[in-house]
Design goal:
This protein is an alpha+beta fold. The protein has 9 helices and 26 strands.
């Protein structure tokens, strides 16, 4: 049989399939090619490395709350209620009624206003409900030195009268506002017991749950495709990487809701969601908030904070989670403290939160120092260093550059039970748990037969909230260097 060929050396019939070249090109000059790949470039397999590089390290931020000692609890209502006690000793706020200079037992008249649920001096100027707490016979300390005896606590519904105990002059400007601790009382011989008594105040707080959701889907065709990348355990189906990342994003967002959530006050536009108070919101509302990064002025910032901690009855150990900016300032502060200070790195620090084991603290990534009877265990806060989340200067200046979390339990004023400062709550009842719901729908894809579409859809859902007890003992670090 005669065989004819086209000018392109392609067989038109016979043993060679249509479309196959007889040779790639004529080998008349070896300089026209440099390698075997140039000669038969469609044959060599590409050298693909199967390992996926973690360019930005471990990007997940969840787990912070567990690291700080937050426990998990079950919830059985649409919100969590918890109680906090107020100050044992109350402060009477007084506003002088008119300009007056009083000497030698003249009577001072004040508008008797003090916040009903005041927990400290800084709460006394709140705009919430106000009341009078002084009683006849009480001794008030005015301006840190003058002692006043309450002589008429019923001068009016909103005022009371008091008299200096000595002849010292007490000068106050018109409408001067003063906070007066009640330091005791005195009564004449033969007088009756006080006619009124003070009831201990318990502050009720409520935090609604937030419902967090996420989804991921893969078609049946993509679920059977094999790629170049080992996504874990020798599996090269890339959709597994996508599903794993979706799960991690969901867990991160769930934790960020508990850290950054806010209760909805814009009820005119948002009517179906209550919102939930996150950790930062609780600290902004009730915690100690700095106006500068700690260490920007050396030990001055830390010493001022320690004085506030003393006022709030804070425990002796704290975990400090901060951005890199704040962390470096703390390192510089400790390094520059000098031999004359009582700042010590690790040596004199208490490690009660780590079973008194310094090595355990170091293994967990904590570096510790002590000052003024407090021990601070510091660690990096990944969330505040991620530039795609809270790692910007604007966030650090206005929201948070770090937090200080007390490493101690809080005593519940009603039950007397000790409870952790942070508590993660998830809805659960009768064996049904909404901490981490995960289910898949699909029309036969990957064996899931509860749908008709050629898709497997992965669903995630959680109903959660965070309880921050004794927020006045926590520190929210804000400010610029």
């Amino acid at each position: 049989m005669a065989i004819s060929q086209s000018s392109g050396r392609e067989f038109t019939f016979g043993s060679a399939p249509k479309g196959v070249n007889y040779n790639a090109f004529t080998l008349s000059d070896p300089t026209k090619y440099t390698s075997l790949y140039d000669f038969i470039k469609e044959v060599n397999a590409p050298d693909v490395r199967a390992k996926l590089s973690k360019t930005f390290g471990n990007q997940g931020i969840s787990g912070f709350l567990q690291m700080t000692g937050a426990i998990k609890s079950n919830g059985t209502a649409d919100s969590v209620q918890f109680f906090e006690e107020a100050r044992l000793h109350q402060v009477q706020r007084g506003v002088l009624d008119g300009a007056l200079s009083v000497a030698d037992h003249d009577v001072l008249t004040f508008d008797g206003l003090v916040e009903a649920d005041a927990s400290g001096f800084t709460d006394a100027d709140s705009s919430s409900s106000l009341q009078k707490v002084v009683r006849n016979g009480d001794i008030l300390l005015l301006n840190g030195v003058d002692r006043l005896l309450v002589t008429n606590d019923a001068a009016s519904a909103t005022s009371f009268q008091c008299t200096p105990l000595t002849a010292a002059t007490v000068a106050l400007a018109d409408n001067a506002v003063v906070d007066m601790p009640i330091i005791g009382n005195m009564f004449a011989q033969g007088t009756d017991q006080p006619g009124d008594f003070l009831e201990s105040n318990v502050v009720k707080r409520t935090n609604p749950y937030a419902i967090v959701k996420e989804s991921y889907e893969v078609s049946g065709s993509q679920a059977t495709n094999i790629g170049y990348i080992d996504v874990g355990g020798g599996d090269y189906r890339y959709y597994i990487k996508g599903e794993s990342d979706t799960r991690q994003r969901f867990m991160d967002k769930r934790e960020m809701v508990m850290l950054l959530g806010q209760k909805v006050t814009n009820t005119g536009d948002i009517t179906t969601i209550e919102g939930t108070e996150g950790y930062f919101s609780a600290l902004e509302d009730r915690g100690m908030v700095t106006s500068d990064l700690i260490g920007s002025a050396g030990l001055t910032d830390l010493d001022a904070l320690i004085k506030e901690m003393d006022k709030n009855g804070c425990p002796a150990e704290y975990a400090v989670y901060s951005s890199t900016r704040q962390d470096l300032l703390l390192d510089d502060m400790v390094a520059g403290a000098g031999a004359g200070s009582n700042v010590t790195a690790g040596v004199a620090a208490s490690f009660g939160a780590f079973n008194n084991d310094r090595d355990m603290a170091l293994n967990l990534g904590f570096k510790s120092f002590s000052r003024g009877g407090y021990t601070f265990h510091k660690n990096s806060f990944k969330l505040l260093n991620d530039p795609t989340l809270l790692g910007s200067d604007d966030v650090h200046n206005r929201l948070a550059a770090g937090v200080m979390i007390p490493l101690a339990n809080v005593v519940d004023p009603r039950s007397g039970e000790r409870a952790p400062a942070l508590e993660m709550n998830y809805k659960s009842a009768g064996g049904y748990d909404r901490e981490m719901e995960h289910w898949v729908t699909g029309g036969g894809v990957l064996g899931f037969t509860n749908d008709t579409t050629d898709i497997a859809k992965f669903h995630y859902r959680s109903e959660c909230c965070l309880v921050t007890r004794a927020a006045n003992q926590h520190v929210l670090i804000q400010g610029t260097v």
